[in-house]
Amino acid sequence: MRDIAAEHDSDVGAEHDDGDNAAPERDDSAAPEREVRAPAQALDEYRARARAWIEANLERGQASGLRRGDTDPAAIAAGRALQRRLYEAGYTGITWPREYGGQGLGPEYERAFQQEARGYRLPDLGIAGGTTFGVCAMTMLAHASADFLRRHIPRILAGEELFVQFFSEPEAGSDLAGVRTRAVRSGDGWVLNGSKIWSSGAYYADWGMCLARTDWDVPKHRGLTWFAVPVTAPGVTVERIRQITGDAEFCQEFFDDVVLGDGDVIGQVNDGWTVAQTMLMFERGGGLSHGTRTTGASTGVAPDLVELARATGRLADPLTRDLIVRAHVDDVARRALLARLGERMRTDPAQALHLASYAKLVSGVHDPIRADIAMRIGGADAVNWETVGADGACADGAHGDAVSGDAVNRDERPGDSPGPKVAVGFLNSRFMSIAGGTNEMQRNSIGERVLGLPREPSFDRGKPFREVLRDARGWSSARE
Amino acid sequence: MSVGLLASATPEQELLLDSSSRFIERTMPLPSVRELAAGSGGVDARYHEAAGSLGWFGMLVGEEHGGGTVSGNGLLDAAAVAAERGGVLQPGSFATANVVAHLLAAEGSRHGEVLARLVAGRARATWAVGDVAGLTPGAGEIVAGEDGGGGFRLDGDVRHVPDAADCDLLVVTAHGPRGLTQFLVAADTPGVQARRMASLDITRRPGAVRFHDVRVGADAVLGAPGDATAARFEWQVGIAAVLTAAESVGAMHRDLEAAVEHAGTRIAFGRPIGSFQAVKHLLADLSLSLEMAKAVVSAAAESLGSEPPGSEPPGFGARDGVDLAHAAKAFVAEHGVELAHGCFQVFGGVGYTWEHDHHLFMRRLAADAVAFGSAQWHRDRLGERIGVG
């Protein structure tokens, strides 16, 4: 759902004290009336209207689950059409400002709508949809000009514009402020050259939110600017990247003299790092402060793992049961942590970006542990499984499923075996420890910004970025 | 500064925590805890009475018995206080005192006078639970038999009883003729012999109690023996587990705080060691554990404590609270010790000295890890929620 591997370095801060101020304010601009409690009656009426509309217009069922596997263009088109119907009925951007096509209502209205819509099929715009609504639009609302927002937000809400992040580069992931894609002033506009990578869902998106270097003669954080780049603009090439699961959601883009206008700039020229901080907060889980508060109450002991143990005949095994409970205890603590962080971010908005690192790190650390537990419960059944052909007959399982990545026969499917799901979970389990800021970057952020530990010595601080690249080439080995 | 168990405290909770912290700082800071550990006596009566006047023993008790809560959820308030106590390794068993107060409050006015003294800090109580339900293997159990005259005789020897030798009152969980039965027994009842045990945790005073032909009347029975007591027992363990875990969380907070401070000031290779990622990242991971521990303990306290104080044992509705208490204790028991190990590594050699406070926290966290159920015991209880078919 987000740009894999993208992250800041922890180098903002002591010297760039402007770097830290961006994130907290964003709430108010996103939902100016969120503190105003709705009178119960108004909320009840809203709920009743929403229920009636949902019953008349939405189908029962779960979301189609576009997040896994290659996204079908027809499914995305259907998702966009459904998104438009919600937009026209006024059920998108419920908490977003009215002047940009939102409804300007408090979060309790959003919650009411979500509650009423439970069990109905809502628009599924795949991985790019998640990025558009959860990260890009939220960041735009905090930093883009009114003119930009008037142009783009209504279209986003209507499902016409899907935005992805053009953030990481082949040579800039953790050191995100070290991006080398350049935008050069030309007449009234800009000319963009370079390459971005790990942009999830770019192949079916409409726009990319792109971080480019606009000044090479200042330290790295100070010469950056954000642009909105149409994916179909002349000079933009999008290539899909096949992942270890066999899916190809991630993309790499190449920019060759792509012409952009001043109206495409998001935030201030050369102040892109401020905008990036906001974006990173949303990537890490900054949306927590908008979310529904949970107490971490248990919802049964790791139901997925219980089901797996039942399917593999290990449910009576005491060691397996203990593994399941271990996973459950961590699940409970993780849920409670997210509720706690939401609360802490509300009461301490200045720390929100850094507190969000806990939300990110907890996934990065515990997802692999949980996936490992599932592999242990799955045993051989999580490694090998029989496949079933389109006609229901047993098929030769040597080729043909998403996990092998060798899709000779896409019609084959993995029968009733729990194996593929566990195996895909295993292959995907390091996603959160790398994507959107590695565990190491979150630990730096927590260590320096929450715990107040001393900073790492740095070799690029205060140095024009041009010189940073030159000096790094002279790095020597300890054995020289 | 509060150790911050609660993500956000109400002004009334802040006042309670602030007055508790100031009391601790004034009367029992760490140097005093060390003095107490070095001596043979326990904490004096004034400390206990002052604690009572702060409301420490009345949070699970209704106002009609002199108790009360500042937030409407007494267990949540008590957990927040427990965390402040744990941060300065306060002596005495806060967990068992509150469990006993809660039990007596459930008896209505029957034990009103005793309860009032307990709440005021003028009497001290603990809970002799032993190995009931496998809670503490090797702790022993008490058997209650009918004495023929309507009363009971108690026999057995239980160990690992918090502050056993310093208490005036004992609640005893025993195996009786009609199943699990709980008694309120005065410590000076003939046949009751309390003794101290030596402990890894030198900041506490655990003990053991021998019951030899101890005669008590039927009026000593708390609640209804059998299933009702078994149900109540689950909740009692939940309260004790949550409050013990909350004290651990306070200890974790202060140990980590000291390790972070050390990492910021100790110089090696020309720079503070906390600037090395090997150290910084370890501390960040421990900090994540601590945040999760605070979150899961306060969630458990909030849920388990949301029943009105003094109510009957929970039925199905409170299942979540008991289960969250199991999860909280299981999490903290393991991560508390893990955090102590990590901090020790950051302190390096100085952490191995008697003068440095770290070992006091490490001892406490290791002892709390097995008090009122080890991580394994609490996981086993959660495992019972999983079907077998």
List the helices and strands and how they pair.
The complex is a heterodimer of chains A (480) and B (389).
Chain A: H1 26-30, H2 40-57, H3 73-89, H4 107-116, H5 126-143, H6 146-157, E1 163-166, E2 182-186, E3 189-200, E4 207-213, E5 224-230, E6 236-241, E7 250-261, E8 265-266, H7 272-284, H8 303-311, H9 318-347, H10 352-378, E9 387-388, E10 394-395, H11 419-428, H12 431-434, H13 439-450, H14 465-472
Parallel strand pairs in A: 1-4
Antiparallel strand pairs in A: 2-3, 3-7, 4-5, 5-8, 6-7, 9-10
Chain B: H1 11-27, H2 30-38, H3 45-53, H4 74-87, H5 94-105, H6 112-119, E1 125-128, E2 142-146, E3 152-162, E4 169-176, E5 179-186, E6 192-196, E7 206-216, E8 221-222, H7 227-265, E9 267-268, E10 271-272, H8 277-304, H9 319-347, H10 358-370, H11 375-383
Parallel strand pairs in B: 1-4, 2-4
Antiparallel strand pairs in B: 2-3, 3-7, 4-5, 5-8, 6-7, 9-10
Helix pairs in contact in B: 1-4, 4-7, 4-8, 5-6, 5-7, 7-8, 7-9, 7-10, 8-9, 9-10, 9-11
